[in-house]
Specification:
Elements lengths: L1 E5 L3 H13 L4 E5 L3 H9 L5 E2 L10 E4 L3 H14 L5 E4 L5 H6 L9 E7 L19 E5 L6 H11 L5 E5 L1 H29 L3 H7 L2 H7 L6 H10 L1 H23 L3 H11 L3 H14 L1
Parallel strand pairs: 1-2, 1-4, 2-3, 4-5, 5-6, 7-8
Antiparallel strand pairs: 6-7
Helix pairs in contact: 6-10
């Protein structure tokens, strides 16, 4: 079997390494628009060989892990070229626009919209590692539009990773991710920006900030190109999530202005209901790593 990874950053590179670890007999090809990423992926043995467009007809699986605003055009071009039994799968963080755009493609049944809920704040081939997906969650979207044997092939490739597999519609996926992923990245980026606007002395931040600051703004180290594309593709759902978040911030601001500390404490108590959920997430991540 031949597998091609288009996009050799954290996600695509880690998927290729997981294939190497669990299916050493599979030959791994790769392509990246950044020549340095391709060179590094070859150097680190993330892939076996560079992928040329003329190689696509002999690929059995093609995994696309590129900025989501570029995925539609690339996936359609890949579907045009792959053989009739091939699986084409994307790993992006938004699905609604993509699935709608390719809905009329004659090879739509060969495409699977997938999203591994896994990642770090780092990017590029150097950030990839084979254990990234282990014990994490994988979402398959709109599987009714994908031929059953292609879905089963995808499941077989992630089976050794012990991932929790979830199924949902593309639009449902985008709504949920706007709240539990996209909003947290916006918060981290904007908190980082706010601090830098006031604290001009790097040493002051370093000396005074504790682990709470580091964990809160950790996501601000994420790739700006990747995340701008996500916000663009999921604009409507992100705006709705922001509306609720901003309203809560305004409420907190008003309570602080009026010294209504009873209500502030009650809000914090209500937010504490997330504690067992967060503890479960942290335990899961610890076990996965």
């Amino acid at each position: 079997m031949n597998i091609a990874c288009i996009g050799l950053g954290l996600i695509g590179g880690s998927f290729a390494l997981s294939i190497k670890k669990n299916f050493p007999e599979i030959k791994r090809f790769g392509m990246d628009k950044n020549p340095e990423h391709l060179e590094k992926a070859l150097e680190l043995n993330i892939i076996d060989e560079a992928l040329e467009e003329t190689d696509l007809p002999r690929m059995d699986v093609v995994v696309v892990s590129i900025p989501v605003d570029k995925a539609n055009a690339v996936i359609q071009a890949v579907l045009d070229k792959v053989h009739s039994k091939a699986l084409v799968m994307d790993m992006g963080s938004t699905k609604g626009e993509l699935c709608q755009s390719i809905s009329d493609h004659p090879k739509r049944h060969q495409f699977l919209a997938a999203h591994p809920i896994a990642g770090t704040e780092f990017s590029g081939p150097e950030a990839a590692f084979s254990l990234l997906f282990e014990n994490k969650t994988m979402i398959f979207c709109d599987v009714d539009a994908t031929q059953t044997d292609r879905v089963e092939l995808a499941k077989s490739l992630i089976a050794p990773l012990d991932m929790s597999l979830k199924y949902m519609g593309a639009k449902e996926h985008d709504k949920h991710l706007a709240y539990v992923s996209h909003l947290s990245h916006i918060s981290s980026f904007m908190l980082g920006k706010t601090i830098l606007q006031v604290e001009q002395n790097d040493k002051t931040i370093f000396d005074l900030a504790g682990s709470g600051f580091a964990s809160t703004v950790r996501l601000a180290k994420s790739n700006p190109v990747t995340w701008t594309a996500i916000f663009k593709e999921n604009q409507s759902e992100v705006l709705q999530a922001l509306e609720g978040y901003i309203q809560n911030l305004k409420t907190f601001q008003k309570q602080l202005e009026t010294q209504n500390y009873t209500e502030i404490e009650q809000q914090l108590v209500n937010a504490n209901e997330l504690k067992p959920i967060l503890n479960g997430i942290l335990k899961k991540e610890k076990n996965g790593n």
